[in-house]
From TrEMBL, chains A, B:
It comes from the Bacteria. Residues 10-70 form the HTH tetR-type domain. Pfam families: TetR_C_11, TetR_N. It comes from Chitinimonas taiwanensis DSM 18899. This is Transcriptional regulator, TetR family. GO terms for molecular function: DNA-binding transcription factor activity; transcription cis-regulatory region binding. Keywords: DNA-binding, Transcription, Transcription regulation. Residues 33-52 bind DNA. Coiled coil: none annotated. InterPro entries: Homeodomain-like_sf (IPR009057), HTH-type_TetR-like_transc_reg (IPR050109), HTH_TetR (IPR001647), Tet_transcr_reg_TetR-rel_C_sf (IPR036271), TetR_C (IPR011075).
Length: 198, 198
């Protein structure tokens, strides 16, 4: 048996997930074949199955990777001294993702698939729990350090944030009259009034 | 040829759309057969095709009916004297719809289907335009009557409203830790600060 180099394995796995994300966003999960994913990743079908046993396994890995990336990023930001600035940065990063059509398409595909697939729904729900936990950590940390007012309940601050981000996501997806640049000031104003300095 | 009674025809059509909405929300569009819709509506398959030529035609009619209902409701509310109260009522009605799991499921099904079906996407986009137009009419009317402050751009007030409603929709659908009752006060507070009295 050939010995696997763990770094090479991880890199190849990442390439497959990127290629699959691109394919799914363009054509939808059900209209994408594993042969198309292999072509996009530049590998043979036989080789793909060393990494993922099925298309469903690739979809699930995309969600798990996103959950892990969010958890890592919020943990990193939570170690900063100025947590109010860290919150701002996390917000800017979230808005930048929403402004990316590829990200919007893959997110919509995942939601659409999750409503009909209980196993994927559980992973998406965990992903949402990871999102909540990341924001909660920054908001509670900022309150503990006295960098934002301690009055508001952290859970409610997280609600307000996620409602705004999900709302912007839907508008960008469905509403040709929505303009994120027009809305951005108002969004920041609404959130700043919640995270106001202590 | 049998003569159709237009009232009876409209009533039967409405029954079919209600039955289909229920079926689609429970099982998804693709997993629902026209036979199941007929059974739920208590009619024979041959009879169904006097009303709708295909399952796609039923889906499209559901979106068109919703667009028409929204336009009618906002036109009705726009005729009231107190448009600030009318805005409140329209918001309460929108939140009541979001609190209904059947409404959430059918909305998700429509979005999921629309991202892969250009014809349905166009109807969903028109539905969104009708939603925007309804809110815009009430907000502009209230500004014109001096019932809310005239400072803010109506288009931006509509953005803020639809972002909140769509965000609440996503949270209720995906986030087991979101509680609409907990969030409601904050939502009203944020919107009231935009619609503040003139």
């Amino acid at each position: 048996m050939r010995k696997l180099d763990p770094d090479k394995h991880a890199a190849r796995r990442g390439q497959i997930l990127n290629a699959a994300t691109q394919c799914f966003a363009e054509r939808g999960f059900h209209q994408t074949s594993t042969a198309q994913i292999c072509a996009a990743a530049g590998m043979s079908p036989g080789n793909l199955f060393h990494y993922f046993p099925s298309k469903d396994a690739i979809i699930e890995a995309i969600v798990l990777e996103d959950s892990a990336a969010m958890a890592a990023r919020s943990a990193e930001l939570a170690r900063e001294d100025d947590l109010r600035a860290a919150l701002r940065r996390m917000l800017d990063e979230a808005l930048a993702s929403l402004a990316d059509p590829l990200y919007r398409r893959i997110s919509m595909e995942l939601m659409a698939e999750a409503v009909r697939n209980a196993r994927l729904f559980a992973l998406v729900a965990e992903n949402e729990a990871a999102r909540r936990a990341g924001w909660r950590r920054l908001l509670q940390g900022a309150q503990a350090k006295g960098q934002i007012a301690a009055g508001a309940e952290p859970e409610l601050l997280v609600d307000a944030l996620l409602v705004q981000l999900d709302g912007v996501f839907s508008r960008l997806l469905l509403d040709g009259d929505f303009d994120l640049d027009r809305y951005r000031d108002l969004l920041e104003q609404q959130l700043n009034s919640l995270w106001r300095a202590a």
